[in-house]
Amino acid sequence: MSHDAEEEETPPATPTTTAGKDQEEETWNLLKQALIHELSQKLITGDLQAKVEAAREIRKLVRKSSVTTRSKFGAAGVIHPLVSMLSSPNLDAREASLLALLNLAVRNERNKVNIVTAGAVPPLVELLKLQNSGLRELAAAAILTLSAAAPNKPTIAASGAAPLLVQILGSGSVQGKVDAVTALHNLSTCKENSIPILDAKAVSPLINLLKECKKYSKFAEKATALLEILSKSEEGRVAMTDSDGGILTLVETVEDGSHVSTQHAVGALLSLCQSCREKYRELILNEGAIPGLLRLTVEGTSIAQERAHTLLDLLRDTPKQKKLASSVLEKIVYDIAARVDGADKAAETAKRLLEDMVQRSMELSMNRIQHRAASCTPANIPSA
């Protein structure tokens, strides 16, 4: 994120001896310490304009500073006055303090915790409600940064920030949407939160974002993790089927995603089918899920493989007779491989045979899809 860009600070470079460098560094540190003290005093005792100027200077210094400098600013007492400025009726004061706090929190766990302890979350939630998109998205970035610290998650999760972050998913800038998804993902891992932070309103914007992003990206991993959580509720499942291309997007993620996103995507599809096989089986089959699921039984994580096996069983015509399932098929292939190449190479040969079967299945499925598309007349193709 641009607001978090940083690089390690160094004293002004001049050619010197080793002893000269030590002296120069000591002088630089003394100057910096004096500046930290001066700015902290401005924040604590100055008028509003002085506080705004001090906050802007802190942000400027901290952006290019080390973790140590952030800690020194925190120890100098700047956090409480900066948090107080978040509630100022003056928008310049709010923005200046928000940017300063945001940069103080980056890569500094203690500052993150101290900012929340000082009471920053309620005014940040108020900023998320503003029509001012710039301040609103800066507040989302701050929530993201602060929610990365485990001790802060319960406070933020209980604050009412999540529904406001969901609004940014639908109407924010690209950076705002990325920050909102990441913040929601951080909050979703809060074990202390007994009330779900997400409701079905998040499904449609998450599906739309997943459509647009690369399925193997870190962003897709977070979006599919949230969709899997939402698939556990009836409202979430209904929203997925009501969203344009909702199930198809999950199927495409199973096919093209990373190990993490495929695991979450197949988990969401499995939740759908387990909740009501009669309702969701045909919907999933119609989106061509079988080839991707077959491949996942071979190439996915252990959890994804197990989920793919279970979902394939549910998608069969006669689930009660599913004992001739993928596990039985794998045993048959393994026995054949053992006879051909011996027991020591059986596992490797069996895997290769299964991969060939998956590839052939995918080719046959694609041929059927292409044949069906070629046989359609424009009148038979449903409009988007």
From TrEMBL:
Composition skew (Acidic residues), residue ranges: 1-10
SUPFAM superfamilies: ARM repeat
Sequence ranges of the ARM repeats: 77-119, 119-161, 160-202, 201-245
Keywords: Repeat, Ubl conjugation pathway
Domain of life per record: Eukaryota
Transmembrane segments: none
Name the UniProt record assigns to this protein: U-box domain-containing protein
